[in-house]
Amino acid sequence: MALQCNRVLKSFSKWMKIFLPLPKMRFYPPQFIVRDPITKGVKRAFKSGNEVAIVVFTIKNLRELSNQLGQLGYTKFIACLKKTFREVIKLEIEEDDIIALHDYSSDGLTLFLSIDHNHHCVTEIDKRMRKIIREVEKNLYAEMPAAQPIFDTGYMFIEKKHYSIQEAILKANQQALAMAEKRVRSEFNDMLYTVNKIVAQKDIRMLAQPIINVATGEVKAWEMLTRGPKGTGLESPLQLFSIAKQTGMLYELEMIVFEKTLEQIKATGCTQDIFINFTPITLGNDRFIRDIKKMLLKNKSISPHQITLEITERDSIDGMDNFLYNIKVLRTLGFRIAVDDTGAGYASLHSISEIMPDIIKIDRSVIQDIDKNSVKESMLQGLLLIAREAGSLVVAEGIENKEEASVLSRNRVDLAQGYFYARPKALEKGLKSS
């Protein structure tokens, strides 16, 4: 296998010369990927508000072609292929959209494209890729009928919020190459493109739902809730975060939620407590503390003591090396920690024993129809005992009627939220802590 890889690498090393006449379309070898002008081109695209897509064209039967054509035939094939790609790409893609074309990983051709989300769509990108391959195959067949390469393609967008452009390029190329080797459904690409667009444009809305003191009826805090672009299939937070996770954009999306929340606190002058949801995957990310500190430095008027980080139970914390360490650091910074969805499964109870949270939020599944179900009230009482043992305040979620609220009152639940008290709305100015 190693010898085969070496032969392919040597074959492609012949491509490490200037490939296209335009300076920005020169054919750069792998070792120059982290140098100009590719990195500069990517940065320029980002600065102009565009995204950068890495498009990979691989030849599935490269080794067979080499054996079939022999050395002279293979050399002619490579020269013809270079010429054909140059001609087709110049016809199919506008010059301003091209950042670079080169042999990035010795597995095929890599095309860097500047993508304007306002004028391009995934369907159009797919169409261009298919047309390029069709035209290349047709032209190659006309000149060398014996050579019939089988192309695969894939693409991925480079992450803007990566600390290193070079690392972001490496990551995106690996993902694009994986897609090229086994093409995914166009529907998945559509979702990926849409989530990338939402993240790039920070196109989310933040609503706030009040958290009420059960005994007094006063608003004690607000939970920030995320909505995607209005009127789209991703307006629903469940759909938005589910797709973001599947497409590897969850961390970026959740950091935008935190950023937008700080902006709203600053804009409204709110001094009441604020709850923000995070998945364990994000809280355990090795970049999380660094990113949080940077955002706090930009918003020095906002104290971490005002913010509760609410851990949602979509993922288990087991095996997350940085998770518990990050929780400790966050507490030293002044943040409070809440565990969400308690009572919905074993994972939440396990999290309580591991984290010893400041606040426990009881899941709607326990609260629904609790006034009609004595077993559920017993469950609530058990969770209250656990909370007191852990030294945690309790928030009951999803209260929808006065009967449910009355059960909370007689069991002396600390705080509650739900449509019975108020629906989510925009955070308002002048919200002061009592």
From TrEMBL:
Xref: Pfam families:
EAL
Looking up InterPro entries in the UniProt record yields: Cyclic-di-GMP_PDE-like, EAL_dom, EAL_sf
Q: Which residues, by range, are in coiled-coil regions?
A: none
Q: Which residues form the EAL domain?
A: 188-434
Q: Which PROSITE patterns does the UniProt record give?
A: EAL
Q: Which residues cross the membrane?
A: none
Q: What is this protein called?
A: EAL domain-containing protein
